[in-house]
Amino acid sequence: MSELSPEPANGLEWFGRELAAALDHQGATQRELADFTGYKEPYVSKAKNGKALPSPEFAAGCDRFFRTSGYFARLHTRVSERGHPDWFIPYVNLEKDAVAIEDYSNAFIMGVLQTPEYAEGTFRATHPRETHEQIKTRVEARLQRRDIMEREAPPLLWVILHEATLRTVVAGGSVMRGQLEHLVSEMATPHITMQVLPFKAGAPASSLPFTLLTREDGSTVLYSETREKGHVSDSATAVASARTTYERLRAAALSSEESQTLIRQIAEEYAS
To answer: How far, in Å, are 16, 27, 33, 85 from residue 23 at the CA level?
Structure first.
């Protein structure tokens, strides 16, 4: 295997189809591949059936098992980037490598924390001319970003959500209730901290969302967006300014416990 085959609409199905074809060609079983790569057979089954995008390590293991020139690693990279605009891919790569992520959101809930239904609602609002398959690909790409929180050493994620993100109704009340219940569930994870910046806190220290990402070497970069463009800056001055702003937002926000109470309260409002 040296060339990628024509791309189907669904990236997960694409990877799964190629994996199934390779197993069939080699006359190998899922169990044999699982034993070789060090993963469990249900994990291989999900990848084969297009139910989940496997890790880069699994893709590399497939290349060793099938003795390819890196086909599955290249395919994994291609599939991972599908659905993201070109200008957003640098952020996705930074997110994958970060050991700590600090995010301030004031319009939509951060992508890593979105449910499939909420993600679909945001894309349908911002891309009204796209087909169902195009929207599906975008949702798929967004959900793949959750993988960073499933790895053995996930990044420490600190999120400040403006109350507006909780009260802006995306795709209806039932979707919002499910989204907020998901946030409460995620707050039980030890490496995830969430705070809500309530309306009563007054004017926020920042009128725009932004993210600080800290890498393994301790360096921090600032990510921000304008319409149709992402900006990554490692300028010490820009990062220090953003850090000061983030600390002011953190100080004005509710505690994690108070935030959870408010999120539960708003979720109940959507239920009624």
So the answer is: 11, 6, 8, 32
Give the per-residue pLDDT at 244: 97
Check: CB of residue 170 under 8 Å from CB of residue 176.
yes
Q: What residue type is assigned to position 73 of the chain? A: A
Q: What is the pLDDT of residue 103?
A: 94
Backbone angles phi, psi at 193, to 5 degrees: -120, 130
Residue type, 45: S
**Lookup: tokens for 181:** 């219940």
pLDDT of residue 74: 83
Give CA 171 to chain center in angstroms. Answer: 19
Q: Which residues pair with 196 in a beta bridge?
A: 161
The 10s digit of each residue's pLDDT in 111-137 is 889 899 999 999 899 888 888 888 887
pTM above 0.70, yes or no: no
In this structure, what DSSP letter does residue 49 have? T
In 54-91, which positions are buried (b, 16+ CB within 10 angstroms) versus exposed (e)?
bbeebbebbbebbebeebbbbbbeebbbbbbeeebeeb
Q: Please answer whether residues 253 and 259 qualify as being in contact, where contact means their C-beta atoms are separated by less than 8 angstroms.
A: yes
Sheet-wide strand order for 192-197: 192-197, 156-162, 100-105, 210-214, 220-226, 229-233
DSSP code, position 50: T
116 vs 107: CA distance, rounded Å: 17
CB crowding 94-127: b at 16 or more within 10 Å, else e: bbeebebbbbbbbebbbbbbbbebbbbbbbbeee
